[in-house]
Amino acid sequence: SGSLHKWITALLSNRQQIVKIGSAISNPAPVNSSVPQGSILGPTLFILYINDLCNHLISNCILFVDDVKLFNTTNNATVLQSDLDYVSEWSNIWQLQISTNKCSVLHIGKK
Predict the structure, then answer these.
(1) How much is the pTM?
(2) What is the residue extent of each domain of the chain?
């Protein structure tokens, strides 16, 4: 409700986008989510947006800009799967798309 909140709300509200290919320009379309790409404030706002994610996970979690790393020392894959299920549910609620082609599992152990 303060000045900063009003400023951020104004920055993220009522935005539109257009697409330009060659000399052709599309009609404006509303932007309903995301932070402005290329802005200095964008990464900070995104970190604030996803900051609560790690609080609900069993695994260790590291956030850096738009990357999330989960790691755990366990012999029980159910723990990691539970966290992955939560991340999937959380991302659906907050309308964040996970780039599954950038996701991987690194298993270090005897098996």
Answers:
(1) 0.65
(2) 3-102
